Amino acid sequence: MNKSGPQTESRKLCEYAITAGTTAMNAQRLLRALKLQRPVLLEGSPGVGKTSLVGALAKASGNHLVRINLSEQTDVTDLFGTDLPVEGGKGGEFAWRDGPLLAALKAGHWVVLDELNLASQSVLEGLNACFDHRAEIYIPELGMSFQIQHEKTKIFGCQNPFTQGGGRKGLPKSFLNRFTQVFVDQLTSKDMEFIGNSIFPTIDEKIIAKIVEFNNRLVQEVCMEKLWGHKGSPWEFNLRDIFRWCQLMQTDQSPGFFNPGQHVALVYADRMRTEADKAMVLSVYREVFGEEYEPYCGSKEFHITPLNVQVGFSVLRRSGEAPVTPDPPLSITHQCLKPLESLMKCVDMGWMTIVVGPAASGKTSLVRLLALLTGHHLRVMAMNSAMDTTELLGGFEQVDIMRPWQQVLETVDYTVAMVIRRGLMSLDDGTQDTEFLLQTWGVFCQWLKENRLQRPRGTVNSEALNKLEVIILLLQKLNTKLKVFTDMSKLQMDFTLLKERLAQLEDGWTNGGFEWLDGMLVQALQAGDWLLMDNVNFCSASVLDRLNALLEPNGSLAINERGVIDGKTPRITPHPNFRLFLTMDPVHGELSRAMRNRGVEVYIPGENEGVCWDTLDLKTLLHSAGVTGDCVCDLLIQIHKGIRSAIWDSPASSVTSLLHAASLLFCQLQRGADLRSSLQHACTEAYSFCQRTVANQKQAQQVIEQHLAIQGTADWGDGLLSAGVWPDGFPSALLSTEDSCFSSVLRDGQVLLFCLNSLSLQGKRNRPLRLMDLQLALQSSGVHEDSVFSGGVVDLEEGDAFRLISTAVRLVTERASHGDWILRSSWLSNLGRSYKYLPDPVLVQVEAGNRALRAVFSSSLAVKGKTLAELLQPHSKDEYRILMDMRWNKQYLDILTNKCNFEDEERYMEFLEALNAVANRIVLMMDREERAVTCSCTISGAPQSSAMRVATAFNKGTIDMSQLPHPMLMHLRVFFDLWDAYVLQAVQSGQPHISDHVMFEILQLLQWRDHFWDVCIMLPADSQGISVLSLHWQWVQKHLVLRLPQLLMGDTGTTLEGQQDLQAVSAAIQNVLSTPRSVAAALKGIQRSLGKALPFKLESVAECASRLGVLSKALDVNKLKLDGPFSCWELVRLQGAGLWLDIKESLLEASGLVLSANNQLNPHESGILEKLVLSVEQLECCMTSKGLSGVRPMSDGEEQDSGVHMSRVELLQLRGKTQLWPLMEGLSVLNQLRLSTDLLHLALSPGDHNAEDCLRRELSRHLRFCLQSTPMNVGQLQCLWFLLSSDGVSGVSATFHSDPGSQWII
């Protein structure tokens, strides 16, 4: 049976699944019970379908069903009737009004008495005559009896087992004997699956089967076996939860794309009181559903526009009404976003939300925050134990003209404020009318105060109404022009009723009369307001159960206490915007299981449950309380943490105490106290005086003094700047509500503002950012536009602020929407003016982002992206939700795509690819537009002799071709201009699709262009600079010119405008800078033979090479300083480098053998390997014997020679050689360059044996000279020795000759 049913008379029979197995059995029992002329009592757990079963039978049989909810507050007169005041009648006029039960019996309707075991004993006794053999009701006030028509009227009682608490009690046996009792069985798994498939036919049966299995697993483990979930128990997991889950999927997703993991946390996990229990819920879910549907655990993404507010996957429409300033101010913290998302989803579905959590966990603030963001009026009802149903529903009160008068005044006051606000902010012709209205309203308020008409005990007269009517007419006139409110008819109607009431009062018609006054609940139901019942568990559970009928889906509330009017019991149908919230601290008790089952619980953990506040959240709260600066916030947080850790039972351990200290600090500073004494007073009041013992007070005072000592440091006041807090903090909830567009810009610009402020700290600035700046501002009576504060010198190479500027600007520009991009552009322009003292490179980056933003939204790509996004939301006109790149709000994109009915997954993927392709092209376009601005600004700062300045001058015609240092410069600037135009044109062409990895590859390739530009800016236009430019051009040609057009245009074959000119210019530069073909081939051959060492083939060869490296390093004296005293070890190394020619020759020969052994296929057979090993061992022994003991390990019994034995002649010889080393090294370098040239010439003319022999002799003499006269490392000569000792020269020549088509690119 569909237990999700609303009031039965408003449902269709097809909405009931009465044919399910257990439901059919329950219906059969009920039908058999109806055979007897006795009332029927249905008993069963919450959610089994008691009331819905009766409603289905009544609908099937064509009978009208009247539902009456009983509670401890219900009286017999509420059921049968009583004498009540005549509404609108004369003073003191009363008349009889039938109660709902008596009216139903008269009409022959079916009656359901819900929650029968909540009724008082007097009510049960009053019903005895109705239920027993007499079957009649006697009304003493009327002196009449009314018989029950058994052939028409059927009476049913419904109740939950009294063991479930909530004020329920066991009924007397004498009373139960008057009923035919029917126990309603629990639904089985098959029943739930059958009902689910019947009610939700679009959802796959396999998914519903797993949902039921998951629900039953929770019932088994939590409710029956009690394995976990003890805190907050007993729990209910029944058909209502399954229906909520399915309704969420049907609302948020489309057939074929259902994902139960998106809502399992809201329906089941969020109610759990511990993180371990929440994790267990998700663990059971994964066991049942597997890895196919991963559970969604909330998000911290927040977006707000003038029409919508979004947190994660929850989106709510905003009412558009201007908010009332909250007190205390509310902040949007990271910690509140996850429960806020759950709360928003419940509001979206129209479900009652029960927000549970310990004291000071933010339950009430969370609901107030949501009401503020969405623009709904929130009524707060503080519940208490003495509250009864009249405070919820209302009652009769004596007529008082001041009540409607004050209500109209409040409405007019709010309307005047909103109209004046809109009028003063508008630039239309309504400014004068607005000023006149403001003046008239001020005069009227002063007149009210003088005549005491603002007090409840005042007296209203016709003069007051006439004055108020003038203001209402002015409001209507100005509202018609400004269109603040769409309809002001309610205000006009209330004012008309007020005039009628005043006329009746003056005639004496209503003197002593009574009128019905609706309670706060009924007022909220009718007006569409939100109602928060705070500390709801203070109230009696039986009073709350009076609302059970209202809390059913599509439910309504019967006001039995008002009696029957015109034959009907007054019934309030909730306004579509009405929402009900309950908050409770479980330490004061739980709600009844029936009430908990009718709502969705969201648990907010407290500080004592392992929840750590985010530091940024704490600083945001402190800033909203009036604390200025990062260092002050850090100090308060450290004191707070120090008190908590030092005093375990401190009563000041919650965030409330921290905020209390912040408020006290702000008040002290407002009174003119200095910072140190203000901190001392605030912390002492908040943390010390509240301690329970004197010892704890002293300990708290010591902690405070210890932390306050940090104020004595010199640079403590320089740390005021804090990202996201001060001086530019995240927008408050009020600002986000009043100006959602600007708040979004500020939220996205936090990183940029922090970077700009950080750079401003190092130089001049026109806003105070340090404690000294604030003191100067106070001494000079505030901060003015021309105020300048000094600091250090800006160093762009130090810190990350400058390096982050480009990324920070992108955060502002790439998150732009089609509704706010103009605002973002204006904001960036204003930043450039506000931070005018920053270095030019910083301001250029900001301006580049601004121009790129304007260029993108003026292009066809932005129009195409908007068109694609509008296909997902054809009925929405919210341009603020259509982002330039929808992937910045991926969850909203998923919401839109999930609601679209794609034919299949392939069409879905095709659409996303098309949308992402446009976004990727927009990213590329924005990157190029930004680069174009920065490049144009860097030219002016480049040296006059730089290649780019010379090329630009030639391009402008200021110099002619004869003045160019190189012909390449005539094409350089033209190339960049044509290339940038081609890339922008290709990016906006729209074909082919550019995927994410292709976009990143394009961005990487474009860096070759940017690097080439930077090189052209830095290098001079001389021969050396041109040679370096030639190298970079070859890279640009290879990686950019030849590769990028294919990525941008694909194989479409389309030729863009200017593409042929670009190709011609590129070819011209290539021809001018490219190396001749023969020289390139020769260079490539040299590289192949000498420039690429082969990897070692044998481990023994690698070991020998390593040992030779140690030996060569011992003779490498290039890093020794020759102008100071030497150690023995250093003197030996100098002696070896300068005088040991034989050892150096042996080292060179051994190094050459390493190359020979590595180049041969089988060095074992040739004997080279054996010769190499023997040479290495001999060298080690020889060098060790000469005093270089660090060459090899010392053997046992071998002593190190502690002295160096050199004759005077050897010392003089060594001194002369070392003095000539610089000169000799220069000669060797020149000689080696000459040999390289000869080798290149030999390679170009192979077969010249005389030249080859001559080159060999020159190589031999060069090696001898280097070894004898220079300290050159032997490893540097290894390749030349290998070339000399083998057929390397002829081999190189043959290599060049055999590969004439190869081209060497430097």
UniProtKB/TrEMBL annotation:
Show where the Midasin AAA lid domain sits. 191-290
Question: Is the keyword ATP-binding assigned to this protein?
Answer: yes
User: Which InterPro entries does this entry report, sorted A to Z?
Assistant: AAA_lid_7, ATPase_dyneun-rel_AAA, P-loop_NTPase
Superkingdom to which the source organism belongs: Eukaryota
Gene3D superfamilies, alphabetically? P-loop containing nucleotide triphosphate hydrolases (3.40.50.300)
Name the keywords, alphabetized: ATP-binding, Nucleotide-binding
What the entry lists under PANTHER family is as follows: MIDASIN, MIDASIN-RELATED
Protein name, entry field: Midasin
